[in-house]
Automatic annotation (TrEMBL):
The chain crosses the membrane at residues 64-83, 90-112, 118-135, 142-163, 183-202, 263-286. Keywords: Membrane, Transmembrane, Transmembrane helix. InterPro entries: AbrB_dup, AbrB_fam. This is AbrB family transcriptional regulator. It comes from Paeniroseomonas aquatica. The keyword Lipoprotein does not apply.
Length: 351
């Protein structure tokens, strides 16, 4: 009996991932910063313009598990102490980043033709999932917020890595750089299994990025206490980039881009304004606090936590410091965005 042919969905997924990997490899050969993610996203988006695309449901979570372990393993004891010392700056920058949404929301509203409350959730540089959930609770347009937040991440992913790679002063990152640990495959397998277990309760709690946060917390604990059994090979981090880039690219279908042209343009312009505003704040605060400007720019960048942490890793710009900024902002977004929205409505800023 001959084997049954693969299902159409499996063929679509295989073709999508093959295109994503080839796109990432092409960008890698061209020495583009964050090559595997940007190349995978571009190739998947090009494919999505002409035919259906899909990424296996397990690909992005699996990539995030190894990315979280790899990023967490950079937090040795001294590095963790240095990052903890910068916590007041991280908290201040996180609040300023959220408040920047109030500044950019009127511009977004005028360009996109939305109401101010929806514009606020579109403009705040939080995670796509977090902002969508908060928008739903505030009875704002979830679809509009999801599209705007997705476009913001795309704009930042496509602009910050090359600009920082070519223009930004790199400075001294020795306080935020730990020694690399050799890869020991049995230890890595145990870490991956433990990382999955650490992610599961966070997923049940409904937190954003549980597949990254749980393994990252595990990696930080093991590295800071000197019990890290294995490093994470760069090949797995590259594979995580491909999975994340392909996931972003699948959203850029013909119907998505053409049916929401005004909103997409408004999202790109407001993302650019937000990026300039936060970059200026990052440089100024970095000089006052004595922290490296490039890491501060990435730490305050209005991109997603996985994407910005990967950019820091690819450009060797103080991964733990950048990750610390984005972890702090993620927590603050969950705690403060809803309250700031209510406060702004009462004061008539969003009414």
């Amino acid at each position: 009996m001959s084997p049954s042919p693969p299902s159409p969905q499996l063929r679509i997924s295989c073709l999508t991932m093959a295109a994503a990997a080839l796109g990432g490899a092409a960008m890698h050969l061209l020495h583009v910063p964050l090559a595997w993610m940007i190349g995978a996203m571009a190739a998947t988006a090009a494919l999505a313009w002409h035919r259906p695309v899909a990424v296996p449901g397990w690909a992005r979570p699996a990539g995030l598990v190894f990315l979280g372990l790899g990023l967490g393993s950079t937090f040795t004891g001294p590095v963790l102490a240095a990052v903890t010392a910068a916590l007041p700056v991280m908290l201040a920058c996180g609040v300023l980043a959220i408040l920047s949404g109030l500044v950019v929301a009127p511009l977004f509203t005028r360009l996109a033709g939305t109401d101010l409350q929806t514009g606020f959730f579109c403009a705040v540089p939080g995670g796509v999932i977090v902002m969508a959930v908060l928008a739903q609770e505030a009875r704002a347009s979830v679809a509009t917020v999801t599209l705007a937040q997705t476009m913001r991440v795309l704009v930042v992913v496509l602009t910050f890595p090359p600009l920082l790679g070519w223009l930004a002063p790199h400075g001294d990152f020795s306080d935020f750089t730990g020694a690399r640990v050799a890869v020991w495959w049995p230890g890595l397998a145990l870490m991956a299994a433990a990382g999955l277990l650490a992610a599961w309760p966070l997923r049940l709690l409904g937190l954003a990025n549980p597949w990254m946060l749980g393994p990252c917390a595990l990696g930080i604990t093991l590295a800071a206490t000197g019990h890290l059994p294995s490093g994470v090979p760069s090949g797995l981090v590259d594979a995580a980039q491909v999975a994340m880039g392909a996931s972003l690219g699948t959203r850029l279908t013909r119907s998505f881009l053409l049916s929401s042209r005004r909103l997409a343009i408004a999202s790109m312009i407001s993302a650019g304004v937000l990026s300039v505003l936060l970059t200026l704040l990052a440089v100024g605060i970095g000089r006052l606090a004595g922290l490296p400007s490039a890491a501060m720019i990435l730490g305050m960048a209005p991109g997603g936590m996985p994407e910005m942490a990967l950019t820091a890793k690819a450009l060797e710009l103080g991964v733990p410091l950048v990750l610390g900024f984005h972890l702090t902002r993620t927590v603050l977004c969950n705690l403060l965005v809803g309250r700031i929205h209510q406060w702004a409505v009462r004061l008539g800023l969003l009414g």
